[in-house]
TrEMBL record:
The active site is at K264. The keyword Transferase applies. It holds the Pfam family FtsJ. The keyword Metal-binding does not apply. This is rRNA methyltransferase 2, mitochondrial. It comes from the Eukaryota. Transmembrane segments: none annotated. It comes from Asterophora parasitica. InterPro entries: RNA_methyltr_RlmE (IPR050082), RNA_MeTrfase_FtsJ_dom (IPR002877), rRNA-MeTfrase_E (IPR015507), SAM-dependent_MTases_sf (IPR029063). GO terms for molecular function: rRNA (uridine-2'-O-)-methyltransferase activity. Belongs to the class I-like SAM-binding methyltransferase superfamily. RNA methyltransferase RlmE family.
Length: 312
């Protein structure tokens, strides 16, 4: 089904009509669509806004290892790749498919709250050209089977080389982004951390530590509010435990403050408790943020936790 056919199918239901009306009036969606080379997802603007309002934590020159959890379709990873100096130009096949809006099977499958709209099709997310077998990553060969990993390195497309390592992980397969290692797996599965760690452990970072952890993960809404809050809490707790094991401390970096964790949550008293008991004691500074581009009718917000103190 083409994108146009998908739109016609979508426009028949009342909720889809409301969704389309909101999309077409949204200034962030308009801004994103005005440039076919720009961000794949509206959510990219949330990260841009948070970074520029809160000390440019992504832009610091010593930020060299970033993990993006729940990264698909890749808006945040594009922002990070740009900040770390990887050329933002995208592989030819992706630019062509998104610019022309061609060939989707069913856009409704991919139109989550994060705004896969107008130019993004289901097929462009799933039919990623696979480049097997082993590939070089900053002069080193991956130490494990890269079955679910894509990395677009600098000799595959003409562009600049950035600094550092970016790892993006999602349940969904992502179109490649230059400079970004993409892993398709469940973050809550036992192998996720091993895969991430394997990619981060490179020359200059033998311990595979992380400067910035981003999590925009959100479990699919089940319609059951209690279950949804529990899922959100489970994700936040797992991300925090991951941060505890992997974030760089101040001593590691040679700065006053340790690593940074930016994590989405959904407002609920249980999450406030998590903030008070887990986040506040372990970071120098924790803020709860609702960026301007986050929709007013969504109860999502972000914890920006700066200065990991390290396990004592
Ligand atoms: C709001 S979207 C992220 C948008 C992304 N930040 C961007 O800019 O393109 C949330 C993502 O979290 C992913 N997700 C949810 N639970 C996950 C899990 N357990 N493991 C990996 N990814 C997960 C979903 O597949 C979805 O793609």
């Amino acid at each position: 089904m083409t994108f146009r056919q998908s739109l016609i199918a979508l426009s028949k239901s009342k909720s889809a009509k409301a969704w389309l009306a909101r999309q077409f009036q949204d200034p962030y969606v308009k801004q994103r669509l005005s440039d076919p080379q720009a961000y794949r997802a509206r959510s990219a603007f949330k990260l841009v806004e948070i970074d520029s309002q809160y000390y440019h934590f992504l832009t610091k020159p010593d930020v060299k290892a970033v993990v993006d959890l729940g990264a698909a379709p890749g808006g945040w990873s594009q922002v990070v790749a740009g900040k770390l100096g990887w050329d933002e130009s995208r592989p030819q096949e992706e630019a062509a498919s998104t610019a022309a809006g061609v060939g989707g099977e069913d856009v409704s499958k991919a139109t989550g709250d994060y705004g896969l709209d107008a130019d993004m099709t289901w097929s462009s997310m799933t039919r990623v050209p696979t480049r097997r077998p082993r590939r070089k990553v900053q002069g080193e060969l991956l130490a494990f089977d890269p079955l679910n990993i894509d990395f677009v390195n600098s000799d595959e497309i003409a562009s600049t080389t950035g600094r550092g390592t970016i790892v993006a992980l999602d349940l969904l397969r992502m179109q490649p982004i230059h400079g970004v290692h993409c892993i398709q797996t469940d973050f809550l599965s036992p192998e996720a951390e091993r895969l991430i760690h394997g990619l981060l452990s490179v020359k200059g970072n033998p311990e595979g530590k992380v400067d910035v952890i981003l999590s925009d993960m959100a479990a699919n809404a089940s319609g059951n509010q209690v279950r949804d809050i529990e899922s959100s809490l489970e994700i936040c707790q797992s991300v925090f435990e991951f941060a505890r094991r992997n974030l760089r401390t101040a001593e590691d970096i040679g700065r006053k403050r340790g690593g940074v964790l930016l994590m989405k949550y959904f407002t609920h008293p249980l999450l406030q408790d998590f903030y008070i008991k887990k986040l506040r004691p372990n970071f120098h500074d924790v803020k709860s943020i609702k960026p301007p581009s986050s929709r007013g009718d969504s109860n999502e917000a972000y914890f920006l936790c700066q200065g990991w103190k390290g396990d004592s």
